[in-house]
Structures are given as structure tokens and as C-alpha cells.
Amino acid sequence: MPGLYFDEFRIGQTIEHELRRTVTEMDNMLFSNMTLNPQPLHIDRHFCETQTEWGQPLVNSIFTLGLMIGISVNDTTIGTTIGNLGMSEVKFPHPLFHGDTVNVTTEIVGKRESRSRSDAGIVEFEHKAFNQKGDLVAVCRRQAFMKKSPNATLEA
């Protein structure tokens, strides 16, 4: 299913994404190692069990951010985005652990026409990720440069 074009997004619209994903220890280890992040909070179970308040490894927050946005892509931007412009207000209010299942919602919080291109506009998304218990584990605002639909471009 293709993503939505700029002109199809409505401010205030909320999308509850059907895709969900259970995070594994391997996901966390591979991502932490691929990004050269030696933080023991992510890769050292013994350290986490004996020296942290969590008692278990935390999922790497950058993996969590990427997973949250990735889950949203199929319903929002696949095939219709020109590119990401930025992310802001990134927060991780509750830890994500191995075995947690992530689900995501996206709210359209803003949009405007491009000043430089008549065939595009900028959409601001607020993505929220939750674990299976409903705890908010991540939130961010993302700005994407989006194509207008071919019909909207012809009418302009």
C-alpha cells in the first residue's frame, strides 16, 4: 500500500498502525554492536542485573526511535516522501526491554506548502510508541518533505 501524498494528510488525523514488533535480545545486541555502542546498559546482562535499577538490559534508544518511525512508514510515507527533514522533541519516557512488543500511533500535527517547490510540502508527524502494557516508550516529532499527488500538482 503506498504512502499518502502531502494533500491527503489532515492536521489532527491520527493513524493507529497495525504493524507491531516484539523486540529481541538479538535486535538489541546487533544494533548496539553495529553502531559501536559499548554501553553496558544494552549489552551486559550481568551488569544490568547487579548494578542497575532495571535489573535487565535496556533496548538501545536509537533502535527504539528507528523502529517507531519504521513501523509508521507503510501507512504514511512509503513511496511518497522525498526525504526526512528532521526530528525534534525526541523522548523516551519509559524503558523498552527484550520481549516487549511495540505498537505505534502517528498524529499529523502540522503541514505547509513548500516555498521552493510547487509539487511538494512539509508534513510534521508526532509518532508515539507503546509497549504491550500501554506504557509510552518513545515519542518524537518528525518533519518530512512529501510529494503532492499527481492530480494536485496538475491543478496547481
Task: Report on the architecture of this protein.
28% of the residues lie in helices and 33% in strands. The protein has five helices and six strands, in the order ββααααββββα. Strands 1, 2, 3, 4, 5 and 6 form a six-stranded antiparallel sheet that branches. β5 (120-130) and β6 (136-147) form a beta hairpin. The longest helix is centred in the middle third of the chain and has 16 residues, at 61-76. The radius of gyration is 18 Å and the shape is elongated.
Offer a few descriptive terms.
single chain, alpha+beta, 5 helices, 6 strands, elongated
Write the layout of secondary structure elements.
Elements: E1 14-16, E2 21-22, H1 25-34, H2 40-43, H3 45-51, H4 61-76, E3 81-91, E4 101-113, E5 120-130, E6 136-147, H5 150-155
> Structural class, from secondary structure content?
alpha+beta
| Beta-strand share of residues | 25-35%
Could you tell me the radius of gyration in angstroms?
Answer: 18 Å
Give the low-pLDDT segments. Answer: none
H and E string: EEHHHHEEEEH
How many individual helices? 5
The largest sheet is: 6 strands, antiparallel
Overall mean pLDDT: 94
**How does the overall form come out from the CA principal axes?**
elongated
Query: How many runs of DSSP E, i.e. beta strands?
Result: 6
Helical fraction equals 25-40%
Distance between the terminal alpha carbons, to the nearest Å?
A: 26 Å
Quick recap:
This protein is α+β, with helices and mostly antiparallel strands and 156 residues long. It has five helices and six strands; from the N terminus they run ββααααββββα.
